[in-house]
Each structure stands twice: as structure tokens, then as C-alpha cells.
Design a protein that fits this description.
The protein is of the alpha+beta class. The protein is built from 6 helices and 12 strands.
């Protein structure tokens, strides 16, 4: 009987030792993970404050963007014929806010250029004014750009496909305004410009340009003294940009004395917040020869 109790005691002792051999390393691993997480995890910085925006002269032009068609899932013949036609007869969308031109470049892709409407000015905002904002945008820009490409790539394919179908039917492509946002504006920005918007009064304004130096560009009504820079709700319902800034607009010297606040848009202004293609946007078809005149 004594031998039996001794064997049971020895078995219990071995089980405790085996349990300790499993528990101690697991506890140590959890503790190590907690330390690493505490050291490497960085909370989203508080992205708010004031920035300066600069009205650019009328001589300034937004740089056209070339959208490569190399990865578009269409036959080379379809892409080539569409770009060739658009190189000879570009498509233009005109609204009160802007003028967007789609022009084909058979060797490089689809060129998108944007010019301000008569009552709009180009405002430049340098994101490097706020160190936290600049660091945040640098860290998140790849994720922002991935969201942009998720909309742009299928939209560019559909634009070329629909345009080719219209050519074959000897008809005009009446659906072009539907591509203002998904191709025109998405193609004119990079990651950060795609996820932000300016809000002045009740109206929202998409970013229309972005350079490689941390500067983004908006078309804002003449005379606006401030606007809010914040996140834009994307087609998937997400608003990835976490910041909210008040932008003080620095007017051109010649315009400071005569500046006036933008006229109220009344009850219809709420429609602008939807950031949808504007009802007044109309397609025009012009040859390059007509556009030179």
C-alpha cells in the first residue's frame, strides 16, 4: 500500500512539473508580447488645428495626370483605338466648379487635366505645416492609395469600354459625366488627396491635385476666407482620413481689398454635401484644333 501511495505522489509531482514547463514559457511569451506591443504601438495622433491655404494666381495650372492603361483588362486593339480617337477629339466635362478634359495619348495612356470654373480659385494647402499631420499622411499614404486604385482601375476600364462601344455604334458617349469622380478626380490625386475634402459653408469640394512634396490642391469659391479640411466618405462607406483642420485662406494681394464671402447657396446647397456629379455638368466634344482657338 505504501508503494502505491508513493507512486501516485511521484506521478502528481511529475504532472505539476510538466504543467509548469508549459505555463512558464507561455506566461513569458505573453509578457514579452505585451512589452513589444507597448513599445511599438502608436495611437493615432490628434489631428486637428489650423493650417494656411494659399490662393494661387490665375497663371497657375494644375499638372495633367497620365493614367496608364498597361494593366487595363481590355484587348490592346480596343485600348489603342480608343486612345487614338481621344487624341484627335478629346472629351470635356464642364460645370460651374471645373472643366475636366480627357485626352488620349496612344503611347502613354489617358490624360486628365482640370481647370477651375470662372468663380473658383485654386487653393494650395501644404500638409507639412503640421508635423503630426505630415507624419500621419506619410505612414498611411499607401493604404489611402490602395483605396483610390480600387475605385479608379475598374472605372477606367469601363470608361474605355463604353467609349469603344459608342465609337462602334457611331454614337456619342452620353454617360461620360458619371466618370467625373471615379476617373477624373481619382486619377488627378494620389493617396492623401483621394481621401480628403474641403467644406466651405454647406458645400463639399473634392481635392483636384496632389504633388510629391506634401501639397494638395482644391478649387474653392472666390472670396472664401476659411474652409474645413477633413475626411471624405468613400464609396465603401469608410472615412479613412482621421483629421479635421480649419484652413485660413490667404488671398492674392490684389484681391484682398475686394474680397467678398461666397454667396449663400440656400436650401439647394445640401446637395453639394453628397459630393456626387453635379447636375449642371455637361459633356462637350471638341477637336484639338477647336481647343486651340
Amino acid at each position: 500500500m505504501a508503494m502505491k501511495y508513493a507512486r501516485e505522489a511521484l506521478a502528481r509531482k511529475r504532472r505539476r512539473r510538466a504543467l509548469l514547463r508549459m505555463v512558464v514559457p507561455a506566461t513569458a511569451a505573453i509578457a514579452l508580447f505585451a512589452v513589444i506591443a507597448a513599445v511599438t504601438w502608436k495611437p493615432t495622433p490628434k489631428l486637428e488645428g489650423r493650417l494656411k491655404g494659399k490662393v494661387l494666381s490665375e497663371a497657375f495650372t494644375l499638372s495633367p495626370k497620365i493614367l496608364s492603361t498597361d494593366s487595363v483588362d481590355l484587348s490592346p486593339e480596343t485600348i489603342a483605338s480608343t486612345l487614338e480617337e481621344l487624341s484627335e477629339r478629346s472629351e470635356v466635362l464642364v460645370s460651374d466648379r471645373m472643366r475636366i478634359k480627357f485626352r488620349g495619348d496612344p503611347k502613354r495612356g489617358l490624360e486628365v487635366s482640370i481647370d477651375p470654373g470662372v468663380q473658383m480659385v485654386v487653393v494650395q494647402v501644404d500638409l507639412k505645416q503640421d508635423a503630426r499631420l505630415s507624419e500621419y499622411c506619410t505612414f498611411e499614404k499607401d493604404a489611402f492609395n490602395e483605396a483610390r486604385l480600387n475605385e479608379l482601375k475598374p472605372a477606367l476600364r469601363k470608361l474605355l469600354l463604353d467609349y469603344d462601344a459608342a465609337l462602334k455604334a457611331n454614337a456619342r458617349m452620353t454617360e461620360l459625366p458619371a466618370f467625373r469622380d471615379s476617373v477624373g478626380l481619382a486619377g488627378s490625386t494620389a493617396g492623401v488627396g483621394y481621401v480628403v475634402q474641403a467644406t466651405a459653408g454647406n458645400a463639399a469640394f473634392r481635392c483636384v491635385g496632389e504633388d510629391g512634396e506634401g501639397r494638395i490642391f482644391f478649387l474653392i469659391p472666390k472670396g472664401a476666407k476659411t474652409f474645413t479640411l477633413g475626411g471624405r466618405k468613400l464609396p465603401d462607406g469608410k472615412t479613412p482620413f482621421a483629421g479635421k483642420y480649419t484652413v485660413d485662406v490667404e488671398q492674392l494681394p490684389a484681391e484682398k481689398e475686394s474680397e467678398e464671402p461666397p454667396a449663400s447657396k440656400g436650401k439647394d446647397a445640401k446637395d453639394d454635401d453628397k459630393d456626387e456629379p453635379e447636375p449642371e455638368m455637361k459633356p462637350e466634344m471638341k477637336s484639338d484644333e477647336d481647343q486651340k482657338s
